[in-house]
Predict the 3D structure of the following.
Amino acid sequence: MLGLTGASGAPYAARVLRALVEAGAAIGVVSSRAGRQVIALECYGDREMDPGGALERFVADNGSPEVRVYAESDYAAPYASGSARTDAVIVCPCSMASVGSLAAGIESNLIHRAAAVQLKEGRRLVVVPRETPLSEIHLENLLRLRRAGAAVVPAMPAFYGLPESIADMVDFVASRVLAAAGVDLALIPSWGSR
Ligand SMILES: Cc1cc2nc3c(=O)[nH]c(=O)nc-3n(C[C@H](O)[C@H](O)[C@H](O)COP(=O)(O)O)c2cc1C
């Protein structure tokens, strides 16, 4: 499951979704309201776009007809229960508000519930936080998540691969996210391989 929340970084989620489709994964997408606003702005450059329409277009552009979209209030979704044995939940991008909810065990939307299920079941949860600078509260929450078993993969591209475009930088972050989710798909050359 791919959950999008209202932090900057929707283009990372778009790349992750395209890669998951390429990898043949069964994917459900959930976005918070703020996540949909960020999609409208960062993927389509449109502050006025209807957030619901933005998510639909995002999935049409980056997903496949098999990708299913769930409402953030849909607790009938398989991800809401450990019995569904979801391989990985990726929260990308993850706002500090959602990091706080996850760290506190507040399961008030499907994204937070699905993440909490992964932790209680000892399955993969990948959190892709984006904020700067980070307060002590943010850092404590992230540490709490790491200690609880989440992979914390900050949206933090590197320059040592000599990126030539924003797409290259997006690929860097997306490839780290996929690796943490256990998806074996190389978007960029590994260090030392060229
Ligand atoms: C365009 C835009 C960019 C934002 N960027 C960030 C960000 O990078 N990190 C963050 O923690 N919050 C960011 N926010 C604020 C969150 O969206 C806000 O705290 C929201 O309540 C998060 O809710 P959610 O986690 O349910 O999506 C941004 C909001 C907007 C509208």
